[in-house]
Amino acid sequence: MTHLIRGLKDRPTENLSSMGRAAYNNSIAPFHNFFLRNAIRLIFYTVPTREHFLDKTFGKIDATAFNEILVRVLTPLEPFVEYLWKYYKERNLTGLE
Question: What is the CATH number of the domain that holds 73?
């Protein structure tokens, strides 16, 4: 989730589908088996456009206000994600397939 939120903030012109695909590939894809990875790959073809997603999620909002929202979301989320990865690694849960 943090990869996608960071992408929304840092790459304002990239489409949501490729951003989501990159976030998935850089985070949990290595822990999924072949069938699940390919099923999720198909899902990315159904993702709405970035503009449609943002309009339905946040309404009409300017870029500065949108970036402020993303920072407010990322700030508490990142330590939580770090804690989860630490928890998974300590219990050897990152190698499951």
Answer: 1.10.3520.10
Reported as a single tens digit per residue, the pLDDT across 18-40 is 999 999 998 889 888 999 999 99
The domain tally of the chain equals 1
Residue 23's CB is within 10 A of a number of other CB atoms, namely 19
CB 21 within 8 A of CB 43: no
DSSP character at residue 45? G
Centre a 10 Å sphere on the Cβ of residue 49 and count the other Cβ atoms it contains.
11
Q: Whole-model pTM? A: 0.72
Q: Please report whether residue 50 resides in a domain.
A: yes
How many helices (H) and strands (E) in the chain? 5, 0
Nearest residue to 22 (alpha-carbon basis) of 70, 97, 10: 10
pLDDT, tens digit, 9 for 90 and up, residues 73-83: 999 999 999 99
